[in-house]
Amino acid sequence: MLNAIVPLVVDGLANAALIFFVAVGLTLVFSVLRILNVAHGSFYSIGAYVAATIGLWLVSSGLNPWLSFPALLLAAALVAALMGPLIERTLIHWTYGKGEAVQILVTFGLFLILEDLQRIVFGVRSIYADTPMALLGVSEIGGIIYLNYQLLLIGLAVVVLIGLRLFIRHTRYGKLISAVVEDREVSEALGINTRRIFMLAFTLGVFLAALGGALATPTTGVAPGLGAETMVLAFAVAAIAGLGQVEGAAVAAVIVGIARVLAIYYFPALDAVAPYLVMLAVLVIWPYGLFGSTSTRRI
Amino acid sequence: MLKLRDVNVAIAGVRVLRDVSFTLRPGICTVLIGRNGAGKTTTLRAIMGLVPLTGGAITLEGEALHTQPSYARARLGVGYAPEDRRLISEFSVEENLLLPALAMKLDAAERRRRLDEVYSLLPQLAEMRKRPGGATSGGQGKMVALGRALMVAQKVVMLDEPFQGLAPALAQDYAKTLAELRKAHEGLALLITESSPNLLDSIADETLSIERGAIGAEAPAPH
Ligand SMILES: Nc1ncnc2c1ncn2[C@@H]1O[C@H](COP(=O)(O)OP(=O)(O)OP(=O)(O)O)[C@@H](O)[C@H]1O
Ligand SMILES: [Mg+2]
Fold it and tell me: Which of A141, A261, B11, B79 could pair covalently with B157 via S-S, beta carbons 3.0-4.6 A apart?
């Protein structure tokens, strides 16, 4: 019994870890900038493509294969540094204070542009770069076999969750972000350069999504369509949690991750829709999500 | 020191401020009196850069202020306490006070100096400095908002209807604090709005009245 359930749970949690990175970025951007970025999932797939490209290059170059681990992080940082500020300044910036319709149109346009860009730069084939997974191997505990890379993913998600909370609560920029989330006008009048905070939060959101994508390459590879698929998943997670909830996103990611694996193992036909069935069920009972509220804005 | 010249503001196509001109001077307390909807809050928001001008100019010590973003105006020493206190609810009282220092990247010594000054003017804030901003009463919240504005205000402080909703005892405390502030900070220019003229007689040096977005006759307050 346990031998059947534990691997399933680990599978679900590893899956949840990847969705968590994207969803928490989506939620962060929503809280600070007050826009729902429909193109957010594309940063996941771009992170995945860049990581896979660097990974394959590392293998072919004959360098130390363990370098593929820092390369995953580097890929995410690269995507965030190059795309975050640029996209926020040139495009997202125009949607501030506009209605939801404008925001969705602009970010959907961005999504289409980014999808085409990926096809032009990375082609249309699937890419696998699983060196990190192969390097870490498996471990056997009590007769159960674990993929060490999956355990690493789960651990990293926990580290990012705690790190993000500590960052928001205890660092200068984190506190400025909290203030802007709650009251951007007063924040500005107290000397906070809110434009800079928007750019920073957007870039951090891009980084988290790209990190999710980079970390996913060794397990799932990357193929066209990944961005859209991820976007919908991340949105389901954020909606289940309540938009703007950091810890809530982690809980919701676990729920969705486990639901997906359960579906894959027991009701394969429901695999693709399982996350949305969960989302519907939650929203019917809690319209603002499990942890969302209508009163104060906070992160 | 802070000068408004023919300031016009329109909100949703409606003219809310009409050719507003006046000057705030160092050490002088100017009181802006007007009925509900007269344009008091909008005047302060225009000075702070929270609403765009459709015409006119605002200068601080001769330099254009109206072309600066809001946060830069704070950094130039213009402090503002809004009508509805608007504290950051999950920050403690002290974190609320320190937020401007954090935003403006003040060094530790300057931050300490300003905080001590606020605590010596408003000792009740020191007592509740650990309490969450969201857990203060209306009156306490006004004190915190005043303290927070003072952390910014090196040159000008603007208080929007500070006495509104204060119990008489608390209002007296607040007025006493303002008097002490003026002694401690001789060069500070004050701009205070009020809907009823009597409350501020004792501290007003100059009284302006605003009606339907236009400033009326300027009368020196009786001393
Ligand atoms: N956001 C807004 N949208 C539409 N009209 C507004 C807005 N803010 C202010 N106004 C209008 O501008 C005018 C001036 O408002 P303002 O808030 O400056 O008045 P006030 O003197 O501060 O009033 P009160 O004593 O009620 O605080 C009012 O007629 C109001 O209807
Ligand atoms: Mg008002």
Answer: B79
